[in-house]
## 1
Amino acid sequence: MVDDRSLRLGVLLTAASAVAYSTAGFFTRLIPLDAWTILFWRGVFGGLLLAAWIVWQERRATVEAFRTIGALGLACAACSTLATICFINALQRTSVADVTVIFATAPFATAALAWLWTGERQARGTLLASLVALLGVALTVDAARSQGRLLGDVLALGMTLLMATMMVIVRASRSRSMLPASCLSAFALAVVVAPLAHTSLPGDINALYLVLFGTTQFGLGLLLLTTGTRLISATLSALINNLEVPLAPAWVWLAFGETPSPAVWGGGALIVAAILGDLLLRRQPLRERAACPG
């Protein structure tokens, strides 16, 4: 069982990670560089932040912390790296609202993967909510297809599945810290995209934007998510991360005037309704849900 203090801390850390992640669209619109260059520097600065935290936390045991992540840790790092590549490219090929709405289905993808991994059965309400959420995604993707944004939405869907897999792995490996895996994923990201990126740091204000993007949105977001998900269930973590649904489009709307289409509003409303319905109709108390494996 998870005690109340650990539960509250897990919820708080995961909610904070959602706030950090919600600024991705803002930074992507703010920085006038290609996706590969943004990904490269995002990985470098995010990795440096995570590495500094791990060294400060582990001291002489730093090398051992990286060695103990095992095969699951490497799988977690791979999922995070691929998800980030899909994420930034999706943001440059479709609207921030589309990406956010599709990512809102992560709780249901996570629940399905947790069931396949651990055999944990989901309540009928969750299955019904999953169906409603899929309808919301279908509405959003159909609108994107007619507006030439289909590739961006497909990338967002791929990112969602990869992040759901990552959260299940982190929860399944909660006896060990997956922060080193997150750190590896950041540096792996920079290595993978380096041949396609401009690896010279810009000499203008964009350099500062890249540092902030890598540290506050990516590095800090991964740190908070990886730490918080160890304390609560993967499905609950994915649900809390849907704080991004209202926040991500809001930052872009306030800064750049990017207004979501009616179809995106409709799809988003269906998904948010599915999430709220799943939370309100479940009979299982929050404490019990947080204690469930997966």
## 2
Amino acid sequence: MSLSKQQRVGLVADIHGNFSALLAVMEALDTIGVDQIFCLGDTAGYYPQVNECIDLLRERKISSVMGNHDWYLASGYCLRSNMANICIEYQRTAVTPQNLAWLKSLPLEMEECGIRMVHGGWADPLDEYLQPTENYFRSLRGKYFASGHSHFPEIFSSDGKVWCNPGSVGQPRDSNPEASFAIFYGSNFQIHRVKYDIEETIVQCRSAGLPRKVYGGLRSGSRNLVEG
């Protein structure tokens, strides 16, 4: 599907079961006015409200690629983080059969509105922490690219190729606690930030019995997930 320069596409990523953050981002996207919204993966992982987040994406017919935490919940485990597995085990007890089937159905890559989209990168769609360079994108077909995974918002442009990481909706790690998302305007990307009810997410985590380290960085946007 092509996109005219007058149309707007919303991009979200790394929601991680943070329903309060997702609601704030959806409200911001509705206020700005977008024609479509796509998710770059990791609706699952970390925070308790995975069903609410998936339900909202499904209700709004928001297409998504699969992220590594989506894969963990649907099919496996994380080999590098016990904390991630604790959260996945909690979500495994909570996720509905319908939402689990939705996660299992997600593609590794999609191309819509002229944007090639994965969660990680094109060397490893699930788990690559992409470091953008001119050489990286030179051999890739296409002009516009978007991926998530790092939780750091970024736009890179070189030699006619443009890549965007919209940052994380549910777990920012760039020392800015506001939820992050992006809009594609047909020829350029723009990062947006919005405040959300962090305390509500922390209440949900405590009610679920998740360890403090899981939510400890939300107030500061810390990549270490430990409150200072």
